[in-house]
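User: Some background: our group keeps a shared notebook of sequences we're curious about, and every so often someone picks one and asks for a predicted structure to add to the entry. Today it's my turn. The entry only has the sequence so far, pasted here. Could you supply the structure so I can complete it?
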Amino acid sequence: MDREIEHLTTELLSFNQEFLRHFQEARETGSEQNFDEVIKPFANKVNSINGEWKEEMKKWLINFPLKHIRIQQVESVSEHIEQLSIQAFFPKTSKSRFLNAQRTVEFFLTEVLKEVNKEKRDAT
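Assistant: Of course. Here's the predicted structure to add to the notebook entry:
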């Protein structure tokens, strides 16, 4: 289970960086991407990984409750990821709101990886 969570979390961290790149590009150019050709396929790919991650995280937290990571936080971060995967492409997206959500996702996913690595160290 730890390996799967580590893999999915790493993928989501990569997507989170991609959200930022798309957002910066949209802000610089002022143009929107085609929804059906670019945004929707990208968001679907992100949401597929995000859904798997959320389910694995819930199972993990039920079996191994953690002090600093709660299921409600997982739900919230998952929602942020869904929103960011679409909002990143629109230049009129609120910059502060987008960046706050993006940083929240970055911080939380990094914390999850720290916990997974801690679990692996403790197991040896």
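Suggested note for the entry: Residues 116 and 122 are 10 Å apart (CA to CA). Residues 35-63 form the longest helix (29 residues).
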